[in-house]
Design brief:
With 201 residues, the chain is an all-alpha fold. It contains 8 helices and 2 strands; from the N terminus they run H-H-H-H-H-H-H-H-E-E.
């Protein structure tokens, strides 16, 4: 069993070296889709919404994986050759003030517009109400991930590390868009959550 795992890991590293963008995109898609199914089961779903998981996988494949690939290449270029503690903190701060807020904003838009098929006016209202709390909650978790990522993880594996961290917090993220007893989605924030209008796809 250990030999199979090691062989698979070696093949993955080879694919990551030869086809980095493609490999990171596929990895992000697989992890996003599978972690969504896991989150549904942990959330008490009686039957899986495969369509929802497909669109989450699509989000990982077409956006999250490629974005992570190019973002980390950009960060490596900006901070090339610098490995001191001050540079490490600058990397974490830069990520948490740029890609972090942007990705949360885009994710909420994707959920509202694509998965739930809301009009932009409803999504915009939801953003104005709940985005600040979503982002503040993200800042309680992702700076630690970024710090570990830039300090200990090789550059070619940083997107994978972030994907795995996203799997770990996916259940919490889906509590932000969790279903209440009527089968509608809620945004959990510091305020009392209010249900969306209809069940998601």
């Amino acid at each position: 069993m250990a030999d199979i795992v090691q062989h698979g890991w070696e093949k993955y590293l080879y694919a990551l070296q030869k086809y980095p963008l493609r490999t990171k995109a596929i990895t992000a898609g697989v992890l996003a889709g599978s972690s969504d199914m896991m989150a549904q089961k942990l959330g008490g779903a009686k039957s899986l919404q495969f369509k929802r998981s497909f669109f989450m996988a699509l989000y990982g494949l077409l956006y999250a994986g490629p974005f992570g690939h190019f973002f980390h290449k950009l960060m490596d270029n900006i901070f090339a050759g610098r490995r001191d503690g001050k540079t490490l903190l600058k990397k974490v701060l830069t990520e948490q003030l740029t890609s972090g807020p942007w990705n949360n904003f885009l994710f909420m838009c994707y959920i509202g517009l694509v998965l739930e098929r809301r009009p932009w006016s409803a999504v915009k209202a939801r953003l104005s109400t709940d985005y600040p709390s979503v982002q503040l909650n993200a800042w309680r978790f992702w700076p630690i991930v970024s710090l570990l990522n830039y300090r200990y993880v090789p550059p070619q594996l940083r997107v994978l590390f972030q994907n795995l961290a996203a799997v770990c917090c996916n259940y919490l993220k889906w509590r932000i868009l969790a279903r209440d007893g009527r089968g509608t989605f809620l945004i959990l924030s510091s305020k009392k959550p209010t249900p969306l209008l209809k069940k998601a796809v």
